[in-house]
Amino acid sequence: MGALSAPPQDKDLYRDTWVRYLGYANEVGESFRALIPVSLVWASYGVATLYVTADAIDKGMKASVAHAHAQASERRTRVTISVVDTFVWQALASVAIPGFTINRICSASLYLLAKTTRWPLPVRKWTTTAVGLSAIPFIVKPIDRSVDLLLNTSLRKLYSSDQKPSDPPE
């Protein structure tokens, strides 16, 4: 009763709940590539891509609501910027770059284990999977920061500073 509580904030379904882990599906798929059919690896990319698309649509809907009182052309511009920015960022930071990174880590791991150990193939494959899964937490932040830098120095320069996707309506 005596403690002040912070005002409730809206939770972002795609970034503040368990749903965000769907964006890591392809990294898990790549980690298991040596053990599972390739069709399951591609299915993991499908899950991650659906997550990226759903997040972009959600951010567009939120921008539409936030700019409901703006002129139609201004509202359309803000929604488009929000959807494109979110989709490109998520596609790079959640699917393309991490998928490639884990794929190369696992490939190198399997190759090095074959050249440097006498372990049976199943042991090498499971070890490679463990290496890939273990690498995921370490690659996330550097990739996120790199994608931020990339977009800040390229795509985000295409729209004016008063149209940034995260800006609240005037």
Q: Can you tell me about this structure?
A:
The protein has 170 residues and is an all-alpha fold. The protein is built from four helices and no strands. Helix 1 runs antiparallel to helix 2, helix 1 packs parallel to helix 3 and helix 2 runs antiparallel to helix 3. The longest helix has 45 residues. The radius of gyration is 20 Å and the shape is elongated.
Short description:
The chain has helices spanning 25-31, 38-66, 72-116, 121-152. With 170 residues, it is mainly alpha-helical.
Q: What's the number of helices? A: 4
Low-confidence stretches: none
Count of individual beta strands: 0
- Rg on CA atoms, Å: 20 Å
Largest sheet: none
Shape: elongated
Secondary-structure element series: HHHH
Helical content, roughly? 55-70%
Mean pLDDT: 90
The termini sit apart by 36 Å
Q: Structural class of the secondary elements?
A: mainly alpha
Strand content: under 5%
Oligomer: single chain
Properties at a glance:
mainly alpha, elongated, about 170 residues, 4 helices
What layout of secondary structure does this protein have?
Layout: H1 25-31, H2 38-66, H3 72-116, H4 121-152
Helix pairs in contact: 1-2, 1-3, 1-4, 2-3, 3-4
